[in-house]
Amino acid sequence: MAKSIPITQETENKNNTAPLSRFGPYLLFAHLLLSPLVFGRGLVEAFEFPKAALLIITSVLLLALWGWEAIAHLLQEKPQIKTKEKKKRGDPLGVRQQLETLLGIRLSDPITIGISLFLVFAFFSTLFSVSPRTSFYGDDDSSAGLITILSYTILFFGTKIVCKQIDAFRTLFIATLLGAACSVFYAGLQAANLDPFTWKRTSEFGEAVRVFGTMGHPNQLGALLSMGLPIICYFRLRMFEKHAFFPGVALVALEIFSVSALIISLSRGAWLATIAMFIAFIIGMVMITGKKRLIILILIPALIGVLLGRAYFKMTSEPMQSAVEKSAQISSSTDLLSVRTKQIGLSVITEGSRWPIWTAAANMFLDHPLFGVGTDAFRLAFMEYRPSNYWLREWGGTPTRAHNDLLHILATQGGLGAIAVFLLTFGIFRAAMSRLKQLHPDRILCLAVISSAVAFYVQNIFNFTVTGFGTLFITLCAFLSRWGEPEFFLEAKPKPTALAPFGKSFTLSIGRGVIGLVALVVIYLLVLRPLQTSYLVAKTIFNRSLPPANAVLRLEEAVRLDSTKDDYFHHLGAAYRKVAGRAKADPTLRAKSFLSAKAAYQRAIDLVPVDSNNHIKLATLLVVMAKESPPLATPDEVYRAVKMAIQLDPKNADLYLIGADIAISFGDGIRAKRWAEASASIYSHFAPPRAQIGFVALLDAVRVLRANQPKNGEIKLQEAIKNLEQSLPMFWANHEGKKEAAKNDLAKAYLFRARVKEQLGEIENARAAYKKLLQFKPDHSEGISSFKKFQERHPLDVLTLRDPADGANRR
């Protein structure tokens, strides 16, 4: 008989440790480390999308590990209780107590209740959304739909279940140090112009590109660093307290460079958040220790970091002088940091682009007070509530967030979502007031967590939550929710899970296999396929040399893999349109390509019918199709698409411009003038609609003149000249091409007026019109030629010259 191998208690604990407790800490650590770092240059959205994908993968794996543990718990042998004992014990445990027993956490604290209710209310907000599909998957550039909120919730519960003791959280927060260090290092490369990558979408101040690290935007980098600084400061103080000199010096350097990166990010909201964070941290340290001299020790690295950031702008002030002059109109000796600092104030907020967004968000909430317009559907709803002053400030841009988290939640998830947030905030505030009163030697870690939460709330007054630091906030919430539980300060020990009896072990294996398979399928559907599709689309649309036919094949494959994004169908429609444009010699292929493009745009409309962009893109395609021979569309179809776009986004001046241009192309001057006048009535200082009114009048004048009605033609010409002259000094935004066209139209109007005056016998008025034309455009070839012929027909009389102004003869 073979000799049996003894099984020690340590071996048994190691083999029987619950899967979530065994693998969960590594998973949480890796996620918290990578969450602010991951990005993909080969994707359509390089930063937020891969970070959200990582969050989904982590939440699915956490759920799968917990499912493995739950199955083992359900199959393990339970002691049999006799009937008499059951009666003595009374009623069985309630649902909440059973869940708490199964999860191993308390569910009654305000933080847990707030996060749970936020998920529940987000579900109802998705059901009643203006675009349920968008609310479920998330907007294209935002990735903050119901799936992401569910992932946040799973991450919160998973962190609470895995990290039962304070030592586990302390280890977990080391990932924040490493993540901040990597992001700061990359920001330093950008500041030194050593970034190995070239980015097209950047945030600029003047002509200087603001550093953004691995977060994709300077404001998000600033938010991450403002939240990470108190945790860095805590570990720095802890290292010096333990006389670990070299780790302490390394953390001092990290703190200094983090503050420097925060300064050169030029993020005003992050600056205010950092100030509020340091105030909270210093007040808490004085309350805990009673040592005011610690204030200096806390602030010295931060002050050095501020000086380094200031020195950076001083060193780079010479190449930035022209940018400062252009953006701020002040002395060229002033650097960008001073300019940015002067832009902190209430007047800057009310006069900038934030205020119109906030007013629109407030109006959304007033109209949808219960569930809001829908989770992550702010951009779509904003079209209806767009203030006219916002369009003028952002030139037609449409925000995906309210740039204030409270207003954003009120607008998208209504009062119910706000209640959940208030409950969560109350839980954090109560934790801050009660936890710091507990006499525990590691209250400083709790203080660092609370200070980090303060930074999160302050920066979100002017910013919004993204995955890169949203996951850190969820970890902070889990920490504060766990603090105060009896086992939180005990030494962490592995808890063995009782083995299932032999008869149930097969069932356990099958159950775990099914859970693992489901997890892999979910990851593939929600993460891998969307990532593959995004990579395929990016490789297609960013490759300008790719033949349109090949682009169509790739995009067809992309929408087959992921048919949930209307933006992908836009690209597919544009590719088919390019194929049609190159198939002029093949009418059959051209018509087929146009119809395929129409089907792609229609598919985008079916996915998100409330997006005005979908309808206007279809309109611009249909106008080309309507001019084919034979026509592939009718003007009525085109006008319906334009009307629907304007109905969805009634204060978007670009839509009126496109509609008026389309009507002009069809020769419908009445409709074109009506749309141009509607735009001009909303934006009285906006030049393009005024120029369109002038151009329509010019077309009418040409038509009347061809009918041999010079007097009526002169009236139309005066109307054209008046509107075109008015448009030139007005605000053109990014329509420089239209401004040049307006100048050419005005020159034509001057020329036609000169010819009409000659036809009516007003020779001197005709001469004056020619001179005005050549003063306006000295190089106008047709005007020069016409004026020469005019002078030949009507030479000046040197003896008698009639002054057209007073009719008197001068000799």
Structural class: mainly alpha
Tell me, rounded to a whole number, the average pLDDT: 85
Q: What share of the residues does DSSP label as strand, in percent?
A: under 5%
Shape type: elongated
Within the largest sheet, what's the order of strands? Answer: 1-2
Helix tally equals 35
Description:
With 811 residues, the protein is mainly alpha-helical. 71% of the residues lie in helices and 1% in strands. It has helices at residues 9-16, 19-34, 48-75, 83-89, 95-103, 110-127, 132-137, 146-162, 166-191, 218-241, 245-264, 268-289, 294-315, 317-328, 336-342, 346-351, 354-367, 378-385, 388-394, 405-435, 443-459, 467-482, 502-541, 548-561, 566-581, 587-607, 612-626, 635-648, 653-665, 669-682, 687-706, 710-727, 736-759, 763-776, 781-793; strands at residues 204-205, 208-209, 801-802, 809-810. It has a two-stranded antiparallel ribbon. Strand 1 (204-205) and strand 2 form a beta hairpin.
What's the arrangement of secondary structure elements?
Elements: H1 9-16, H2 19-34, H3 48-75, H4 83-89, H5 95-103, H6 110-127, H7 132-137, H8 146-162, H9 166-191, E1 204-205, E2 208-209, H10 218-241, H11 245-264, H12 268-289, H13 294-315, H14 317-328, H15 336-342, H16 346-351, H17 354-367, H18 378-385, H19 388-394, H20 405-435, H21 443-459, H22 467-482, H23 502-541, H24 548-561, H25 566-581, H26 587-607, H27 612-626, H28 635-648, H29 653-665, H30 669-682, H31 687-706, H32 710-727, H33 736-759, H34 763-776, H35 781-793, E3 801-802, E4 809-810
Antiparallel strand pairs: 1-2, 3-4
Helix pairs in contact: 2-3, 2-8, 2-9, 3-8, 3-23, 6-8, 6-20, 8-22, 9-10, 9-11, 10-11, 10-12, 10-21, 10-22, 11-13, 12-13, 12-21, 17-18, 17-20, 20-21, 21-22, 23-24, 24-25, 25-26, 26-27, 27-28, 28-29, 29-30, 29-31, 30-31, 31-32, 31-33, 32-33, 33-34, 34-35
